[in-house]
Write a structure and sequence with these properties.
Length: about 475
């Protein structure tokens, strides 16, 4: 299967596009423009929703057709199937169609086949978006020097497929990849980062092993030439141990090459990135190169030091450390990630809606001083035990909301160190009411932090919509205060 190029089969093919989301909208138009015999879009939404959103008109304008409703994955007849990332590769009638000879692919897999320039990819359970953004910013000046530019996309930003005709060999693509996208990939980037792997998306993956295997797929194929992994994460450490790909380890806890790199990996191009006495270094075991002081990093939190370590590692040999330090001094962060929304009556309001897992919320708490936190959303079947411990240690009060509010409360109540007297805890199912409640608890000098530890899909289309709604509520609070 690895030697089959989907791009070679498109002309004259009957194509099925499963799901009509952000990445698949330009895909439909691209397929029709590049010789597909037919394209049928299959989407779970109703005919009415497709028409009212304008998607039906866009599909027909491209010369494609569509099929809607609950049975949208039944009876698939196509030469090539392109699934959206959120649809499992074994869902509905996909398996039967593949057994009959259909090729299964995706917009991202097609892009990887056709991209003329190097691809740097970032995956992991936490830190992907910030690390992807920082990596692209560090590479911008380096690309300009060689007459190219940086394209950023994948699981972040705009789809990259429509940009293909503008790309050259002098460019670099920096892509964020989710486990959903990686699950069926048959080509790897030239360089890859795995920031960490912790339990995540277990409401979608059948188990943790499948989730890990999907993440590993980023470095299992050609033309991978270098991988960057977190030395403090047992799973990524093990991935590096079993790989023949040259590796750079990063660690925010250990401060020398010998302490980080296992003896059997030392030498032979293995690198380590670490901090000592407030300075980040990169070392090959013989020579240490100074990267930057950690105080240069504008973004708060120890996790952001790790994000910069990973970004510097993947950019090593392409960009100067001075360029990395300039980014660190000036970059204020991505939207919805520890985003300072406003200060009202001496109370700071932070939007970290992107924190869709317990480990992300724990990282956010490490950058705060006893905030009043708003937690909850859609449960991903991941444990909240460790989060509960951190809530007890690091928050002034907790407001639980959304579908998973009961599970988080259960995790708190199981702890011997927990009591409502020590940690005031409130349960408010409605999101807006939860934000207003958190605001009412705050006094001058406090921080109100939205860091849900869960996905947004119980009440919102995505984390961005949740974050924007939070910001609109904060604006209402300010107007009333004014």
């Amino acid at each position: 299967m690895n030697d089959i190029k989907v791009s070679d089969r498109i002309r004259g093919a009957d194509c099925a596009v499963l799901g009509y989301g952000v990445s698949n909208k330009p895909l439909v138009e691209w397929l029709m423009a590049h010789g597909a015999k037919s394209v049928t879009v299959r989407d779970r939404r109703s005919e009415e929703d497709m028409r009212s959103s304008g998607d039906a008109d866009r599909i027909t304008a491209a010369g494609a057709t569509y099929l809607t409703g609950e049975g949208y994955l039944d009876g698939i007849k196509a030469d090539i199937i392109f699934r959206s990332p959120g649809i499992r590769p074994d869902a509905g009638g996909i398996g039967e169609a593949v057994a009959r000879g259909a090729l299964l692919s995706s917009e991202m897999e097609l892009f990887f086949e056709l991209c003329p320039c190097e691809i740097f990819a970032i995956t992991g359970s936490d830190g992907k978006t910030t690390t992807t953004t920082v990596t692209s910013l560090i590479l911008e000046e380096a690309c300009r020097r060689r007459g190219g530019k940086v394209y950023r996309g994948g699981n972040i930003g705009n789809p990259l497929l429509p940009e293909l005709e503008n790309m050259t060999e002098r460019d670099i693509c920096v892509v964020e990849l989710s486990s959903f996208q990686l699950m069926t990939m048959r080509k790897s980037p030239s360089r890859a980062i795995i920031t960490n792997i912790t339990p995540n998306h277990l409401n979608w993956h059948v188990d943790m092993d499948e989730y890990i295997a999907a993440k590993c797929n980023v470095c299992m194929h050609q033309p991978i030439s270098h991988m960057v992994v977190n030395a403090e994460n047992a799973i990524t450490f093990e991935i590096a141990r079993n790989s023949d790909v040259p590796v750079t380890y990063f660690s925010s806890k250990r401060s020398s090459y010998e302490d980080i790199v296992p003896e059997y990996k030392q030498g032979g191009g293995t690198l380590a990135v670490f901090e000592r006495d407030g300075i980040i270094y990169i070392s090959d075991g013989e020579q240490e190169r100074r990267v930057m002081p950690t105080e240069s990093i504008k973004l708060p939190g120890r996790h952001n030091v790790e994000n910069y370590m990973a970004a510097v590692a993947i950019c090593d040999g392409y960009a100067d450390f001075s360029e990395a330090e300039e980014v660190a001094r000036t970059f204020g962060g991505v939207p919805h990630r520890l985003e300072l929304v406003d200060v009202i009556g001496g109370v700071k309001y932070y939007n970290s809606s992107i924190d869709s897992s317990p480990t992300r919320t724990i990282a956010a708490l490490s950058a705060m001083d006893k905030p009043i936190i708003i937690c909850g959303g859609q449960d991903k079947h991941v444990p909240f035990d460790t989060l509960a411990v951190e809530l007890c240690k690091s928050t002034k009060a907790v407001v639980l909301t959304g579908e998973a509010r009961g599970q988080i409360l259960d995790a708190l109540e199981k702890l011997p160190l927990y009591s409502e007297a020590k940690l005031p805890t409130y349960v408010e199912p409605d999101f807006k009411a939860a934000v207003l409640l958190a605001s009412s608890l705050a006094v001058e000098g406090d921080t109100v932090l939205l860091s849900p530890a869960c996905t947004s899909f119980d009440a919102f289309k995505n984390f961005a919509e949740r974050g924007e709604f939070f910001k609109s509520i904060v604006k209402e609070i300010k107007n009333k205060e004014g």
